[in-house]
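Backbone-to-sequence.
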């Protein structure tokens, strides 16, 4: 697995621009050497800002959207049309410029189709199968959680690919999440983090605090932390790359 590398940005706007362009450049580079690219998406306000910018880049990029498969790292176990669902918001942004078929999009099951988060997670793990993400995108909670893997609820020995969450400390309490096993077999893991309120947990995670799920995520080829200046403010300067 790759050691984490930090990319520091002056502000959130610069982070959004760089993250979107880096994602586009990486996908184009992958498509030049392989037929299909698998991208695992994250949710959240900042991620949606990046997706907005990414969608603006698509028309003139030469990206082959027919060769792109989209997956999700976690989801709220709510009905399909619930605005809480990551997939609903993300696809509404990306569909403006990406022509994606249902066969290319792999949202996690909604509450109307499965009995409980455990059944939904089992179904998603089955759909994922041997798929390896070329890029897995993650956000970071102020408590150090990634996807819906929360501190104190992390089973890093699990051999499963997805897990049902029934008692998440943040609403909604029922969720589905990829496990560390699924995340860490990704070729590249990128974390997008902004804001002073996350500076402490960023520093702890990059220092290897074993209590934080974020400290355990690694890509096989690359682990990148995209940080704005506020999120990086408690890091030693030598960790910060321009």
């Amino acid at each position: 697995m790759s050691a984490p590398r930090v990319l520091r940005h002056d502000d959130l706007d610069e982070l959004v621009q760089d993250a979107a362009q880096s994602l586009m450049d990486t996908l184009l580079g992958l498509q030049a050497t392989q037929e299909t690219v698998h991208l695992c998406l994250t949710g959240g306000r900042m991620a949606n800002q990046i997706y907005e910018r990414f969608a603006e880049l698509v028309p003139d990029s030469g990206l082959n959207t027919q060769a792109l498969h989209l997956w999700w790292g976690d989801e709220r176990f709510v009905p399909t049309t619930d605005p809480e669902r990551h997939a609903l918001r993300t696809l509404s942004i990306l569909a403006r410029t990406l022509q994606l078929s249902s066969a290319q999009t792999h949202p996690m099951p909604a509450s109307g189709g499965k009995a409980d988060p455990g059944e939904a997670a089992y179904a998603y793990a089955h759909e994922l199968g041997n798929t390896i993400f070329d890029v897995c995108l993650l956000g970071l909670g102020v408590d150090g959680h990634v996807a819906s893997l929360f501190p104190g609820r992390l089973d890093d020995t699990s051999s499963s690919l997805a897990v049902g969450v029934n008692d998440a400390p943040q609403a909604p309490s029922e969720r589905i999440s990829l496990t560390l096993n699924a995340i860490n077999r990704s070729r590249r893991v990128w974390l997008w983090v902004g804001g002073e309120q996350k500076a402490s947990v960023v520093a702890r995670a990059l220092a290897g605090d074993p209590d934080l799920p974020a400290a355990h995520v690694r890509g096989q080829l690359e682990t990148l932390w995209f940080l704005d200046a506020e999120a990086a403010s408690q890091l030693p300067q030598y960790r910060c790359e321009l």
